[in-house]
Design brief:
The chain has two helices and eleven strands, in the order H-E-H-E-E-E-E-E-E-E-E-E-E. It has 180 residues and is mostly beta strands. It has one domain: Beta Barrel (Lipocalin). Strand 3 and strand 4 form a beta hairpin. It is globular. It starts with a helix and ends with a strand.
């Protein structure tokens, strides 16, 4: 009996409850420790892929991919992450496409009007973060990319440099990228 109890205890393992985006985001599913908010409905799928904008010698390329079961504190989530390359006047400003860090990370639960919000970590300016809006267009064959500073007041202490409003790429400019 004792051996049976030990074998039963060893065979049990904690389960991670799987909850759909819709149940979690729209139906107010209660939070459960170690729950997995999974993209069962495929909301992220149309955004996945490589997208490109070019105007003369200027170019923006973005690769978006689904990161599954990302640990976020007390739960796991499916998210969109992205890598980018930006070229200005024929000169590469930054390129994280190959072996670079993810510079985009989604934080909306589900898209609203085909728009997803991302945090943007500037790969050149250390500690510089912004917000990116990516909107699906033309039957998911194009996206609109729009970068802004995070909202809210910006404080600096005496002796510190003023807040840097600029990124290593244009902000408040709409780029329309085609899916490759």
């Amino acid at each position: 009996m004792f051996i049976t109890a030990i074998l039963f205890a060893l065979s049990c393992k904690a389960q991670t409850p799987i909850v759909s985006f819709t149940d979690y985001c729209e139906n107010n599913h209660p939070r459960t420790f170690n729950m997995y908010v999974k993209d069962i409905e495929g909301f992220l799928t149309p955004y996945v892929g490589t997208w490109k904008w070019q105007n003369g010698n200027d170019m923006l390329m973005i690769t978006l991919f689904k990161a599954e079961m990302v640990h976020n504190g007390d739960r796991y989530d499916d998210e969109l992450h992205g890598k980018m390359k930006y070229v200005k006047n024929g000169r590469e400003v930054f390129n994280t496409l190959v072996n670079g860090p993810d510079v985009l990370e989604s934080y909306d639960c589900i898209p609203i009007d085909n728009e997803y919000r991302f945090s943007f970590k500037d790969p050149i300016k250390a500690g510089k973060y912004g917000e990116v809006y990516i909107t699906l267009l033309d039957n998911n064959t194009k996206i609109k990319f729009y970068l802004v500073n995070n909202e809210g007041p910006k404080f600096t202490f005496p002796g510190e440099p003023p807040f840097d409003w600029e990124f290593s790429m244009p902000r408040r400019t709409e780029f329309v990228l085609n899916k490759l």
